[in-house]
Amino acid sequence: MPEGPEIRIAADQVEKAIKGRPILEIFFAFERLQGYEEMLKEANVTRVDTKGKGMLIRFDCGLTIYSHNQLYGKWIIRNSYNYPKTNRQLRLAIHNEQKSALLYSASDIEVLRDEEVQGHPFIAKVGPDILSEDVTVSDLLSRFTSKRFYRRKWTSLLLDQSFVAGIGNYLRSEILYVAGINPMTRPIDCSPDQLERAAQATIDLMWQSYEHNGITLDFNLASQLKAKGQNRNQYRHWVFNREEQSCRTCGTPILKFQAASRRCYYCPSCQSDEYN
């Protein structure tokens, strides 16, 4: 499933393609939405926002298209009406004179009045979005230490979109590694220094992944490994998807386990309670 950085990148691409140009045509695959096709014709997209893994395409007529890619959804940008050859099902198409923004395979699509957006069930419950809002280390520390969250295991907490929006499976493992936190612990088990490192890592890795196409490894080190001929999967992450490979810091083999029904990776040395 795409995580927050991938959705923000897709939103940037959609915005670049369709912002500020009158809409020639909009297609909705779902019959319940087809009444909006005429209403949105000739409207202008004013901006494209994200809230975690949700996308909000805002129009100057007071309407907003909400979409969530879920597991299989994918945005494709093409020249106007130039559809790709694909077995995916087209769910939403937005066309102007130059470009078409095409959403395939997603099933969670709605049209909302602007005043309804904040009350949408997903938007209302989702936590702060680091890539779209001004979120500070202090803001995250307040959440880490709140009664609502501080007794929950990190492995489930970081995947909870009501905690922080947009964190998914690879970011969970990478944040805990960079913060030096044992994934079996909870915020209440951590020192103030660990909590501050976790807050900083959450912000830094979210932005780095967005700016460098999903790379969470130190970017200078990633560049060196790339220059040595390693492929992207080999230089992308600190620990995620690196089971039994050597920790980049201490050389200990990386371990993998299941947490919240999803795979999680960590270094038993760098993320041990004794180390911290």
Could you list some keywords that capture this structure?
276 residues, alpha+beta, N-terminal domain of MutM-like DNA repair proteins, Helicase, Ruva Protein, domain 3, globular
Outline the biggest β-sheet.
4 strands, antiparallel
Q: Strand order, main sheet: write it out.
A: 1-6-7-5
CATH class (first level) name of the largest domain: Mainly Alpha
List unreliable stretches of 5+ residues: none
The number of domains: 2
SSE pattern, N- to C-terminal = HEHEEEEEEEHHHHHHHEE
Q: How would you characterize this protein structure?
A:
The model has no long low-confidence stretch (mean pLDDT 94). Helices cover 29% and strands 21% of the residues. The strands form three sheets. Strands 1-6-7-5 form a four-stranded antiparallel sheet. Helix 4 crosses helix 7 and helix 6 packs across helix 7 (192-211). The chain is an alpha+beta fold and 276 residues long. The two termini are 32 Å apart. The protein has two domains: 4-125, N-terminal domain of MutM-like DNA repair proteins, CATH 3.20.190.10; 137-266, Helicase, Ruva Protein, domain 3.
Summarize the structure.
The protein is α+β, with helices and mostly antiparallel strands. It contains 9 helices and 10 strands.
Please specify the SSE layout and strand pairing:
Blueprint: H1 4-18, E1 25-28, H2 36-40, E2 45-51, E3 54-59, E4 63-68, E5 74-79, E6 90-95, E7 99-104, E8 108-113, H3 121-125, H4 137-144, H5 154-157, H6 169-179, H7 192-211, H8 219-227, H9 232-235, E9 255-259, E10 262-266
Antiparallel strand pairs: 1-6, 2-3, 3-4, 4-8, 5-7, 6-7, 9-10
Helix pairs in contact: 1-7, 4-7, 6-7
